Structure formats: structure tokens, C-alpha cells
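Bumping with the actual sequence this time:
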Amino acid sequence: MRELDNQKSVGLLNSIMEFELAGVVRYTHYSLMVIGPNRIPIVDFFKTQANESLLHAQQAGEILTGLEGHPTLKVAPIIETNQHSIAALLQESLNHEAKALELYKKLLETVENASIYLEEYARTMIGQEELHNMEIKKMLRDYS
């Protein structure tokens, strides 16, 4: 085992928190913008994503304070495209989830062989993000 780079780990966890908090705002906005015959299940999907993003932000914050870090008050930038078709919202969601996946992979690279707990956390989150990507891709198939 190598020594954990505490500072880099805390920095990445803060970036994850910022990104997940942006997901809360993003998915809440999306849930309000959905119209059409498929509205109800897609609104439910976006609300679930918003709640999950909040949980993920809280988990990252708990870990980073456990590493004696200070949790951020920032939210990652959110670009308003004013594209509110279901296909556009799902594509933006897919882009968001892909970036989240990148952050968790960076965390895994940083903590690998230094902390089993943080490795398992990162791997679990990578698995969840990969699953989200698959689900959104399935939903998008209907719009291609």
C-alpha cells in the first residue's frame, strides 16, 4: 500500500460535491420542464436523479470531512441551453453523467492502493454512474 494523497483526495471529493450539487439543480430544473405524453415517468426519473445527486454530494462531504477536509459551498457551473425537449434533456443528462463518471475515475486513480475504503467507494460510484449512463442511453434510443 502507498500513502494516501489526502490533499488531492479532498480536492477531488470537493469537486464531486460541487458537481453532484449541480446535478440537484439540473435535474430539478429538468423535472419542471418536461411536457408531453411521457411527462409523468420522465419527471419521476429526473426527481429521482436530483435526490440521488444530493445523496452523492452528502456522501462525498462525509468522506472529505473524515479526511479533515472542509466541504465546499460551491456548485459546479450549470449551462442553461434552453433546449427542453425530452431528447435534449436526456442528452444533457448523459453528458452530465459522463462528467461525473470522469470525476469518480480520477478519484479511483488517486486513492488506488492507498485506501481500500476510498477505492471501494470510488468503484461503487463508478458502477452507479455507468448504470445511469446505460439507462439514459436506453431512454434516448426512442428519440434517435
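The C-alpha cells above came from a reply further down the thread. Helices lie at 6-33, 39-66, 86-111, 116-140.
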